[in-house]
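hey can u run this one w/ zinc ion bound, need the structure tokens asap thx
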Amino acid sequence: MTNQKKDDKIREEYKARQNRQIVAIAVVMFLMLLAAVLYKRPDLLGAFSGRTLFGLQTISISAFLGFTAYNWRCPSCDKHLGSNVHRQRCGKCGTRLQ
Ligand SMILES: [Zn+2]
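ok here u go:
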């Protein structure tokens, strides 16, 4: 594989991971917002107690962190990419990501 092809593949893979990461952030934010609304408006869904909502939030955050640890890695060196979702380069190996 030529270097150019390898770079393209890394950028392609980074873009796919970035898209998955953005979707995961959107989903977890939606769940947090939903839990907050349900917590403030117990009349909407009486069955959800504060404890259930807290459990739901804990599970959402854990699932998100687990997913991030698995997904949000440099396609080249496999190191974690940190909190910035729009990285230009990998902070560890310096590979151009987009
Ligand atoms: Zn890297």
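Residues 74, 76-77, 79, 90, 92-93, 95 surround zinc ion (CB under 6 Å). anyway lmk if its weird
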